[in-house]
Design brief:
The complex is a heterodimer of chains A (253) and B (164).
Chain A lengths: L1 H87 L6 H24 L7 H21 L3 H6 L5 H8 L6 H32 L3 H35 L1 H7 L1
Chain B lengths: L6 H46 L9 H5 L14 H11 L6 H66 L1
Classes of the chains: A mainly alpha (253), B mainly alpha (164).
C-alpha cells in the first residue's frame, strides 16, 4: 500500500505543477492581450472620432462648393439684371439694384460667420480680407453712385430700398460712377468666389482622405477583434484546465 | 487530454459565448460602415438640393453647377449591383447635350438615394436579427454554464462526502 502511494503523489504533484505553470503562462499572455486591447481601444475611439470629424468637414466643404457655385451665378445674374433696370431710369428705378447690394452685404457677412465659426478660417487669412473688401466695396458703390453710403443711410434711419432711393434723388448721384463701381463690384465678386474655390480645394487636399482614415479604423478594429478573441480563448482554456484537473485526482484515488 | 463529463457543458457554454462575441464584433463593424453609408446618403442629399436649385439659375450657367453634382468614389462601394447596371445604361446617353445631362444627373442622384436607403434598411434589419442572436447566444451560454455549475456542485458535494 505504502509503496503504491508514493509514485502516485509524485505523479499528482508533477501533473499539478505542469498545469499550474501552463495556467501562469496563459494568465500572463492574457494580461498582455488585455493591455493591447486597452491601448488599441483608445486608438479605435480616436480614429472613429477623426472619421466623424473628417466626414463633417467634407460634408461642409462639399456643400459650400456647390452652394458657392450657385451663389456666384445667381448673385452676378441678379446684379447684372438689376443693373440694367437701374440704368434704364437712373436713379429712380434703382430699388432692386439697391436690394441686390444689401443681399450681397448680407451674404458676405454670412460667409464670414460660416467660414470662421464652422470651417476654421482665421481672420488673418487673405480670404477673410477679401470678404471684408467686398463688404466695403458695396458701400463704395452706394456712396459713388447715389452719394449715400450705408452708414449714412443708417444714420438717417432709412429702413428700406424705396426710402433710400427717395433720399438719393436729392443727392449728387452719378451714372458714370455707377457704371464703373458696378464693374469693380462684379470683378470683386468673381475674385471672392475664385478664392473660395481655391480655399476649398486647398482644404480638401490638406485634410486626410476618408478612405485613409477608414483604413486606420479597420486596422484598429481588427486588432480589437483578434485581441478579444485571443483573450476569450485563453480564459476558456484556463477555466477548462482548472476544472478538468480533478480527473487526475479521481484517477489516482 | 481526457475531458470530464462535467466540463462538457462548460465547453458548450464557451462556444455560445464565443459566438456571442463574434456577433458583437460584427455589430461593431456594421456600426463603422454605417457612419460612412450615412455620410454618402447625406452627401447625395446635398446634391439633390443643389439639383433642385438649378431651376433658379440662368440656363447657360447651369452646367457649371451640374458638373459638381457627382458622388464620391468611396461611396460607389455602397451602391447595389442593380443600381450600378442602371448607371452604366445611363452613361450611354449623349451627355454633351445639356438637357440630356440634366435628366441623367437627376436620375442618377435619385438612383443613389434609393440604393443608399435600401442598403440602410437591409442593414438595419440584419442588425436587429444579430442583436436578437446575440441575446440568444448569451442566454444559451448562461444556461449551459448553469448546467456545468450544477455538475460542479455535485462534484464538490461528492468530495465533501469522501472527506467525511
Amino acid at each position: 500500500m505504502n509503496i503504491n502511494k508514493k509514485p502516485r503523489k509524485v505523479h499528482k504533484f508533477k501533473e499539478g505543477s505542469k498545469r499550474h505553470r501552463t495556467v501562469e503562462r496563459l494568465v500572463l499572455t492574457s494580461l498582455a492581450l488585455t493591455s493591447i486591447f486597452g491601448i488599441n481601444s483608445f486608438f479605435f475611439s480616436y480614429t472613429q472620432n477623426k472619421l466623424s470629424s473628417s466626414i463633417k468637414n467634407v460634408e461642409a466643404l462639399d456643400a459650400l462648393q456647390t452652394s458657392s457655385a450657385t451663389d456666384q451665378i445667381s448673385t452676378i445674374a441678379d446684379l447684372k439684371r438689376n443693373y440694367l433696370i437701374c440704368k434704364s431710369s437712373f436713379p429712380s428705378n434703382c430699388e432692386t439694384y439697391f436690394t441686390s447690394l444689401i443681399q450681397i452685404r448680407n451674404r458676405v457677412k454670412d460667409y464670414q460667420i460660416a467660414f470662421t465659426e464652422t470651417l476654421g478660417l482665421s481672420k488673418e487669412e487673405p480670404l477673410y480680407d477679401i470678404m471684408s473688401y467686398l463688404y466695403k466695396q458695396t458701400d463704395i458703390v452706394a456712396k459713388k453712385s447715389f452719394d449715400l453710403s450705408f452708414q449714412e443711410a443708417k444714420e438717417q434711419k432709412i429702413s428700406n430700398a424705396s426710402q433710400y432711393i427717395e433720399l438719393a434723388l436729392n443727392k449728387k448721384y452719378s451714372l458714370s460712377n455707377y457704371n464703373s463701381s458696378n464693374k469693380n463690384l462684379i470683378s470683386s465678386i468673381n475674385i471672392l468666389y475664385k478664392d473660395i474655390d481655391q480655399w476649398i480645394e486647398m482644404k480638401n487636399k490638406s485634410s486626410t482622405l476618408i478612405p485613409d482614415i477608414m483604413k486606420n479604423v479597420n486596422t484598429a478594429y481588427l486588432v480589437l477583434v483578434f485581441s478579444e478573441i485571443g483573450l476569450f480563448l485563453l480564459v476558456a482554456i484556463i477555466d477548462t484546465l482548472n476544472n478538468n484537473i480533478i480527473t487526475g485526482i479521481k484517477e489516482v484515488n | 487530454m481526457k475531458i470530464l463529463p462535467k466540463v462538457k457543458p462548460l465547453l458548450i457554454s464557451f462556444s455560445f459565448a464565443f459566438l456571442g462575441i463574434l456577433v458583437g464584433q460584427k455589430l461593431l463593424s456594421y456600426e463603422n460602415e454605417n457612419i460612412l453609408i450615412s455620410h454618402c446618403r447625406q452627401s447625395n442629399l446635398q446634391k439633390i438640393f443643389s439639383y433642385n436649385n438649378l431651376d433658379g439659375l440662368p440656363y447657360e450657367d447651369r452646367p457649371k453647377v451640374l458638373d459638381l453634382i457627382n458622388i464620391k468614389d468611396y461611396c460607389l462601394k455602397y451602391v447595389s449591383k442593380e443600381t450600378k447596371d442602371e448607371l452604366k445604361l445611363l452613361e450611354q446617353y449623349p451627355l454633351k447635350e445639356y438637357d440630356v445631362l440634366y435628366e441623367v444627373v437627376g436620375y442618377k442622384i435619385r438612383l443613389y438615394a434609393d440604393s443608399f436607403n435600401r442598403l440602410e434598411n437591409t442593414r438595419s434589419n440584419i442588425q436587429g436579427k444579430l442583436l436578437i442572436g446575440l441575446l440568444g447566444f448569451n442566454v444559451a451560454s448562461l444556461a449551459t454554464m448553469a448546467i456545468f455549475l450544477k455538475a460542479d456542485s455535485e462534484d464538490i458535494e461528492e468530495k465533501e462526502k469522501e472527506k467525511v
